[in-house]
Every structure is written in C-alpha cells, then in structure tokens.
Amino acid sequence: MIEIRPEQPGDIPAIRDVNRRAFGQDQEGNIVDALRANGAAVLSLVAAVDGRVVGHIMYSPLLVGGVQGAALGPMAVLPEHQHRGIGTSLVEAGNRQLRHDGCPFIAVLGHATFYPRFGFRPANTYGITCEWDVPDDVFMMLVLDEAKMSDVVGIAKYRTEFSTVA
Predict the structure, then answer these.
(1) Domain segments of the chain: what residues?
(2) What element of type H or E holds 29?
(3) Does domain 2-164 have CATH number 3.40.630.30?
C-alpha cells in the first residue's frame, strides 16, 4: 500500500536519501533543500510504504510570459521501489492538487517516454522553450487552464536554485 502525503519536517533526511540514491549524486537533494529553505516549494509530496519514505516529488514556481505555473521536479523513487507505480502515484497526486489549486500549467524536464502518459506534451508545441539548451522531447508542459495559457509564449524561467546549487 502506497501512501502519498505532504512532506513533513521529519521526512527531510529520508527525502535527501531518496534523491541521492535515485540520482546517484547529491545535486537534486541539494536543490530540493535550497528550494524548501527559500520558500519556493509550491508542493512537496512523499510516497511512503509501511511508514518508510520511498519516493518524493517537488513542484516549484516557474514563469512563462508573466504567468506563474509550476515546475515538476525533482521526482525520485528509491531504486528498489521503482517500476511499482510509485512515481506514477506521486505525479498523479501532485498534478491533481495543482489543478485543484488553480495552477495554469506544469512543466517538466524529464523522460520523454514517462511524462506523456500524464498529458505532458513537448513545450515547443505551445510556443514555449526552456531557458536551458535541452532536447525538445524532454522539456514538456501540461496545460491545466487553457484560457489562462491561450496567449502565453516565450521562455520558461526556473528558480535560480536550479542553476546555482551544486
């Protein structure tokens, strides 16, 4: 049984461990810590199995053409718990909450074969590009409010923590 719930202060060491083990480095965990410390976590959820944190997802503010949406990521699942639907559950729960909260869009820089199942499409199909030089198929968007996004085009600007935290 997978429990998806908001991050709590006692989860921070486990979240660092999940990110370190999933990505094989500390950078993603450092970015999560910096976003949290700077009040830039729009939403941070954990996945727990038998009370143990085995997955994590964070959303932070993302600006495109003066409209603020959310950037999904990092999203991580412990290697021994991958391919069991935990990442899917985290993305579905997070996207559902942001839709409920009135977020106009979510962008992700991620696996081109994983995120389309949630409705993400290459952002360039909306006239939106990433501030970093990345392949078109890995920078994707999910538009949650067509009306708010109808005339929005331009460069997606991530929080500085993504560029400055090592």
Answers:
(1) 2-164
(2) helix 27-37
(3) yes
Give kind and range of the element (H or E) at residue 53.
Answer: strand 52-64
Of the candidates 161, 125, 157, the one whose C-alpha atom is nearest the C-alpha of residue 141 is 125
Q: By C-alpha distance, which of 82, 62, 28 is closest to 155?
A: 62
pLDDT digits (tens, 9 = 90+) for 55-90: 999 999 999 999 999 999 999 999 999 999 999 999
Please say whether the dihedral angle defined by the alpha carbons of residues 74, 130, 146 and 120, taken in this order, is positive or negative.
Answer: negative
Please state, in angstroms and rounded to a whole number, the distance separating the CA atoms of residues 22 and 18: 6
Per-residue pLDDT at 144 exceeds 90: yes
Q: 75-91: string of b/e by CB count within 10 Å (b at 16+)?
A: bbbbeebeeeebbebbb
Q: Using one digit for the tens of pLDDT, what is the confidence trace for 27-52?
A: 999 999 999 999 999 999 999 999 99
